[in-house]
Design a protein that fits this description.
The chain has 71 residues and is mainly β. It has one helix at residues 59-63; strands at 4-9, 13-20, 25-29, 32-37, 40-45, 49-55. A hairpin with a 2-residue loop joins strand 4 and strand 5 (40-45).
Length: 71
């Protein structure tokens, strides 16, 4: 089971990572957000840089169930 992943980008952008979605994903690093894309995880980087996404088991994760990056 995957507990995290890292994405590096030369410019802002978005994409789908073929790793199962969980509301507990928490991006750290460059400005980014994650959201659900079917069963997969969508990541939006608002700036160039490196983002590490790992799980954060907290009450906030339960409240973020299916949020979108625009929220």
């Amino acid at each position: 089971e995957t507990t995290g992943f890292r994405v590096s980008a030369r410019a802002p952008g978005e994409g789908v990572v073929r790793i199962n979605w969980t509301p507990f994903w928490q991006p750290r690093g460059a400005s980014a957000c994650v959201s659900r894309s079917g069963d997969w995880t969508r990541i939006e980087l608002r700036e160039a840089g490196e983002v590490t996404v790992d799980t954060s088991l907290d009450l906030g994760g339960l409240l973020r169930r299916d949020r979108s990056c625009s929220e």
